[in-house]
Amino acid sequence: MMHRKAFYPIGQKSIVNCHGHPLQSREFEVNCKAISQTDMIQQRSVGAGTFYFAQGLALAVMAMMIASCGDSVRPPLPMRTLMMTTELIPDSNVYRYYDSMHAKDGVWPALEKANRAAGIEEVHIWRYGNRLAMLVRVPAEADPAVTDSLYVSADPSVAEWGRIMSNLQRALPGVDSSRKWVEMETIHHYLDGRYLK
Length: 197
Description:
The chain is α+β, with helices and mostly antiparallel strands. It has helices at residues 33-44, 48-72, 92-101, 109-118, 144-153, 156-168; strands spanning 6-9, 15-16, 22-23, 27-30, 79-88, 122-128, 131-139, 169-170, 182-183, 190-191, 194-195.
């Protein structure tokens, strides 16, 4: 298929055409496949009006698609970090079992579902002997009671998981025995050259 050549004035300077060949001319030679395809569409159209209507319609559809994509992109929610602690029953068998249940291939799939339902972005758990520490990132404006409710109601097996874990834990001294995990108070916070607390 032969390609037409179109010429567009652009000024006197060295340029290259769309194939990368240098030109020394006041006219920019465009020898692109796209031009030929456009000519074919125009030739097949019944009059210029049909072509321009189709072209306008295509542009409108593209604009709508771009706009709809923009609507789906939302800024990230502000998050807050909670630091919690509790203790395990002091027994090496309990430690091994607890660790295995929280290993990557040991955690029940329902917990990921529950985290998503409750808006929980991140969970870290550390253990030293029988002492546990847990970092949880949740939406800054989240109500703890609502978060807990969404978490537990996400899947029936989440409550069962909670019962198993609770039987391995013990309340900290001075804490109500019905509560296991308790939130810790931030007393020091350094970030990127600044002391925030």
